[in-house]
Here is the input.
Amino acid sequence: MYSVIATDLDGTLLNANHQVDPFTVATVRSLEAQGLHFIIATGRHYSDVAGIRDVLGISPYLVTSNGARIHAPDGAMIHAQNLPPATVKRLVQPEITGAHGRVIANLFADREWFIDRDAPHLLRYHQDSGFAYEVVNLHAHDGRDIAKVLYVGEPDDLAAVSANLEREFGASLYVTYSMPDCLEVMAPNVSKGRALQVVLNRLGIAAARCVAFGDNMNDIDLLETAGHPFMMNNANPDLIARLPAVPRIGNNFEAGVAHHLRKLFEMRDEVVP
Here is the structure.
């Protein structure tokens, strides 16, 4: 019945330390050996997710920057959608980010992660991959080849940024939260759900045979596209309210995805997490 497993990372497949645990690794490797196709769909950068993929030890499709990039299992890029350079240059201005300077601005290029200041606390999210940022003057960046703009800050500050984006750009951008302190901006036709459909078409598999897992607002259309969506018990309350009919499973910090996959596929070789 199920042929494809699509999953978010942070708050979903990864544990509370933003890493993969041995129980999850054993589960996904066993399922891939049975012929299941995996799709990792995340807001993270490709270079970061490639490192996590290597820890998992599987060969998934990688949907990164919320769908602005898609890479095949062999590493070939099969889809890319950038923000317009002029838009990128505007998105890093204080009229958008806030004159107070509290919001950290980031740009995701094909291979690089550019940031406007040193923020070592962000590196804890990238322990498995070792992916790191480069501090640059974002106001001097030409805005070319940027898949995503990421704002990191307190929820109240990000709400103000979101309002600024709505006022200036309206529906000409895709703006979403990946976590309460992460506001992400992509081109308007980018989303995890659209990227999932690209991969399903490439595989020749119907969405009805796809299982998907997510926990936050950038997972909405991933869950709406998959035939069998599941939401984490630790999901954002706004996501729960938006998709009340989607079944909820365990918590990410208790390997909820791996446990649920073992139930779905009747895996009896249970291992201790």
The first helix runs from residue 9 to 13.
